[in-house]
Amino acid sequence: MAMAGSPGAKKGILERLDSGEVVVGDGSFLITLEKRGYVKAGLWTSEAVVEHPNAVRQLHMEFLRAGSNVMQTFTFSASEDKMESQWEAVNTAACDLAREVANKGDALVAGGICQTSLYKHHKDEARIKKLFRQQLEVFTRKNVDFLIAEYFEHAEEAVWAVEVLKEARKPVAATMCIGPEGDMHGITPGECAVKLAKAGASIVGVNCRFGPCTSLKTMRLMKESLWAAGLKAHLMVQPLGFHMPDCGKGGFVDLPEYPFALEPRVATRWDIQKYAREAYNLGVRYIGGCCGFEPYHIRAIAEELAPERGFLPPSSDKHGSWGSGLNTHTKPWIRARARREYWENLLPASGRPFCPSLSKPDA
What we know:
This protein is of the alpha/beta class. It contains 15 helices and 8 strands. Helix 9 (189-199) packs across helix 10. InterPro entries: BHMT, BHMT-like, HCY_dom, HCY_dom_sf. Residues 11-305 form the Hcy-binding domain.
């Protein structure tokens, strides 16, 4: 199969999705850049775009080579309530970095906002919308291709975000960080999806907090409710790159391993190929990842859905399909692993004989 060609005239996000095209999202920034020494855990803010732009640029490039169609601005928690006087410089730099890399391939730039620190305490709609609008003004000035409201625990605040983003007259995607139990006010995933679509989101779904399996269960509930309500919206899923079947309602942040001991839970590339296929079969066409989703995970999505997309990503040039590169190994028992059946059926060991397979959430 051919590799992706050089960029030409780019189709917009809705033009792609309306035609049934698969859009591959990007992956982990906060967790990955924290491991690389550019983000501080706890605050989880994105000043690295100003302090260490090369690190952010490099990660964007890795996702682009892996097959991402979207360079999302690294603007998580980049609102004034969390970054004070830095917020504008951070949002501006993030847009510039995302556009620089997107222009090197067939990728769009998405300006991203997330939940504020104010909602849980004040629920001041006017003040919260002002924070969203400040970021939107930068995204508009930088002419991003579309907008994403992501990582919302409460449907009400997510709806406020969508209402503000719609003011730019660009396509809006909205994802919530919820599982099958719904948001923190007890609103079901289906109800959340309906509220977001009615507010004007053209793309709805979930991101972060939960692993691929749980996130797809939530997406199924969203899809069913959208259909029952007679609403049309494209579906989007960007889960964790970790196995999290033991999460409670709050997701992985409540597990004792968060955030510094999650490595034993990392999904394999083969797990992610399975996730990509299941998401596609569910009708999801915007498929990516969030925390813990490394570039090789994004490549796994792009490779699994290469038959539908019609091409492989550039980084597949160094990756044999289903381990086929092992055919050249000198040891016969390793050459025997160069087949799909081996990797699909492998039950990988953790190497930790005294550790449990599951944990109990702290909350």
